[in-house]
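My main concern about presentation is that the manuscript never shows what a single data entry looks like. An entry of this sort, consisting of the sequence and the corresponding backbone structure tokens, reads as follows:
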Amino acid sequence: GLQDVIFQSDQTSDEILSLNTSLLSFFTVLASEKDLGEYKMNTYMGFGSGGLAPMDTIEVNPDSAGTNAGVFLGFVLKTPYFARRGGMDIVGEFDGTGVNVGLRIPLTSDYRLNLGFTHIERLPDWDKRYWAGHPGFILGLDMAVPRAPRRRLDGGPSDPTNIYGTGVGTLDGLESMSLHRDSTITMANFAVETLRDSMALMNNEMRNLLVRLSSMEQNTKFLSDSLSTIQLESNISEKNMNEALRHLSRSLRYFYAGDYREALKEVELALELNPNLALAYARRGSIYYKLGDVQRATINWNLALRLDPEYTDVRNILKALHENNLKSASLIQE
């Protein structure tokens, strides 16, 4: 960079303004930054071809006012003290002629108090008249501008992520803004990935629910078909029962009329419609008994009793038939 680029008017020249080349100087600076746990150290080393322009309003010793090219060093130590307001900084430098130290104390996240001493190695000569290397006390106040409470971070003016700190407009400020922007993008990417994972999980749950719903629909359809089948079978069974009872009613009329063959046909038709009808077997047993076939009558009565163990009339008939057989057998033996 260039330092002390001064234009001044010279009454002896035709030019209105001319560059004062005697005060112009060049400089170059190398800087580095290193993390030391909770602290952060910034170091600077530079070379300059001259010093600050002397102020002609103050009488100085001409022998001590000369400026020579030289090397200057400096550091800024960022501390964790007052971290909520940005942190306190310790500043030190060697400007080629003496050592300067200072503190940057954050009062709030927007305001910062600067305290410093120049040429502390010459503090014992404080009582002497002003000269180029005279020690001095410095007091300053910084304010972060512009103030935007909605976007301002709590890091304070000296925090590396404060986009409104003193580094705005410089390389350090651009790096701070880039750091803040990169961290925001990283958080946004993380949030997007989390939402994608959540959506994928919800899609899997939705697919599982759809599969379960399809299975329940199939089960419902199966139950509905089964219920329809049972209802149809019930209707068929009820219809067959009604027809079977009509055949038994006709067989009873034929039975009392003495037409046992027609009565037997009607019973056979009733059994075809309902083979588990105990009344039909009991009726057929009675018809066979009237026809003189006691053995077939007994078989049918036993079938009726097996189908309906509470059929008392059939049970009494079989009991009476058994007793008659025993009486007949005892008479034959006698």
